[in-house]
Amino acid sequence: MKRLCRILLCFPVLLLLATPSPAQDRGTEEEAVAMVQKAVAAIETDGRQKAFAAINTPGGPFHDRDLYVVVYDLQGKCLAHGVNAYQIGKSMLEFRDPDGKFFVKERLALAQTRNSFWQDYKFLNPMTKRIEPKSMYMERVDDILVGCGVYKPS
Questions:
Q1: In the chain, which end has fewer C-beta atoms inside a 10 angstrom radius, N or C?
Q2: pTM of the shown model
Q3: Which domains does the chain have, with CATH numbers?
Q4: 3-state SS string over the chain?
């Protein structure tokens, strides 16, 4: 009987150890870079129309946990978005993060001097439904920017 009681007392601790932490549910910087490279390869291989359709598909090949791909033209128009179809086709130039940062304008300025870069700002995490710090990895491919970001706990 004592042994059964010890096992039952340990069960909640074992359950907590076996449950993945929220940090494990978050994408990593390495995974974000790999997702961008995968999207760039799809754009180059399959063409923009087919690749953008795949990027826009919820739960598709360009969406993993809190990782998703976005694509902008060099004028700030959203061409594809992995979790927010509302943004597709819209100019994002005037969008600001909660701190007032014009993050798309900054992104376009960075793209003028770099073919790839990381950018920090704040954005709504689709998994937690909270505004969180985010680092976006972007690659310039001809006249578009392809990106994927990682959310960081605040």
A1: N
A2: 0.83
A3: 23-151 (3.30.450.20)
A4: CHHHHHHHHHHHHHHHHHCCCHHHHCCCHHHHHHHHHHHHHHHHHHCHHHHHHHHCCCCCCCEECCEEEEEEECCCEEEEECCCHHHCCCECCCCCCCCCCCHHHHHHHHHHHCCEEEEEEEEECCCCCCEEEEEEEEEEECCEEEEEEEECCC
Neighbour-count burial for 122-148, b at 16+ CB within 10 Å, e otherwise: bbbbeeeeeebbbebbbbbbeebbbbb
d(CA 86, CA 42): 23
pLDDT at 24: 56
Instruction: Taking residues 68-81, report their average pLDDT.
Output: 98
d(CA 83, CA 95): 16
